[in-house]
Amino acid sequence: RLGMRVMSMRFRICLLFLAGLSASVCMRSHFSMTLVCMLKKGASNSTATSLISETDEDGCPRHEMDSNEEVEKETGELEWSREMTPYLFTIVLVGQVVSLILSMYLSNRVSPSKMMLFAVLSQVVITFASPFLARISYWAFFVARFAMGMAEGLIFSPISTLATRWFPPNERGSMTAVYTSAFQIAFGIAPFVVSFVCSSTFIGGWPTAFYIFGFFGVIWSAEWFRVGSDDPSSNKLISENEKEKLAKFHTQGHKHSTIRPPYGTMFSSPVLFAHIAAMVSFYFTLGLFSSFLPTYFEERLRLPIRKNGLFTMIPFIAQIFAKNGLAFSLDALKRRGLIGHTAAAKFAQTLGCVGASLSLLLLFFADCTRPGLALVAMTLCCALHSCMAVGFYVSMLHLCPPLTGVIASIVTAAGVVASGTSTAMMGIASKSPHKYELIFGLCITLNLFAGAIYLAWGSAEIQPWAVHKVVDGKTEEEGLKSESRKEEEVEEEIEDIPTCPLEALT
């Protein structure tokens, strides 16, 4: 029985979602730690270096600072101004916003499986070329980072569209928790791998980090080309039993819909606004953690690079267990009829917003003399913050299945802008000795505000956003309501076939 469940095509597709998104985010996000290794010590002008004279006065161990200095001196190569390096993070986000706007047009017109493959392959090419471009000039690398953002932005719309085609509603919570764990894998594992590469004398220096993650993308692309498809009916490797069962769920307008999105109605909907607000707070906090967590541990805790990599990894790994455990628990309650989709999403969203905010307050009392407190607080914050993905991220897939790609592009674009704003706010706050307290306070405010909005207006019900079209004598609204009823009828039959053993991942 277990062997049959492992052979489920939905299980394999879900793992490929996880691996593909992990490869994509790793190829972009490892740069936050790799940059420390790329710059010469004199060029990097590390904050840690400027604070050496204060280590005895504030009680921080001096030997940790010396360890950091040695790593920078041995591995640094590029003479870039430190004042210019923040723009390398900002330009990636600009590229993502541009491609997400493009995705709104392409989502109903291009094969999502091919679009996803194209996005990852583009990142692979850029990643392998990045060390060469970095050695040519700062501006050549700057252009490459913009292209990296463009490529990564193209992956969010197709993966959301494919999720609605491959997974029934009662599986979307756990499925979303699993494939969005890619962010935790990337933000947690990538810095740890880079810290090992940079501090090792037996590995070829910082370019090796680019090649490792680029090779990961090559492996995924080959497997997706062999296994991936737009929907179960077009997959050549799926069993007939699973295909027949999923076909009953899949015939409700998910396949190759090309309806014109009614943007006016959508943008005036409080439900969409609630999802945008949730994504803004989610990405604002995530952007800070992914870009500045290594810097926080270096500046406030005075950690050497290897220990920094470990401290950076632990909070993100905790996220994987927290949100997957919550997702599987809520999906189990849904299958038993004990909780609805909307109630489950609001519970997860509230837990994430309130829990992460309370945990962030603990960081106000952490410093280099209490690194354990900082690690515990950051781990709790990240773990609870990830629960938001089981909230608004899951409900987003229910709002209007034919327009999932469009909705994902709009909501994610707002989040990417928020992530870019977070890096800009950090730059503004950097002039203050209490910059982390200021920025953490802003995160707390945003999370609580977004949580209240979602609690009031959030929903996981199908929205009547395509009423402008008549199909088979019925308005689109009637068709969507019929679709919702049919989904409920099919869910019980879906459980008869081998299901995704996603519980094994937790």
UniProtKB/TrEMBL annotation:
InterPro entries given in the database record: MFS, MFS_dom, MFS_Na/Anion_cotransporter, MFS_trans_sf
Cellular component aspect of the GO annotation: membrane
Region (Disordered): 475-506
Any GO BP: monoatomic anion transport
Transmembrane segments: 87-106, 118-141, 177-197, 209-227, 272-297, 309-327, 347-366, 373-394, 406-426, 438-457
Compartmental location: Membrane
Membrane-related topology note: Multi-pass membrane protein
Annotated signal peptide: 1-24
Molecular function terms from GO: transmembrane transporter activity
Keywords recorded for this protein, A-Z: Membrane, Signal, Transmembrane, Transmembrane helix
Annotated protein name in UniProt: Major facilitator superfamily (MFS) profile domain-containing protein
Gene3D superfamilies found in the cross-reference section: MFS general substrate transporter like domains
The Major facilitator superfamily (MFS) profile domain, residue ranges: 8-506
UniProt feature, compositional bias: Basic and acidic residues: 475-488
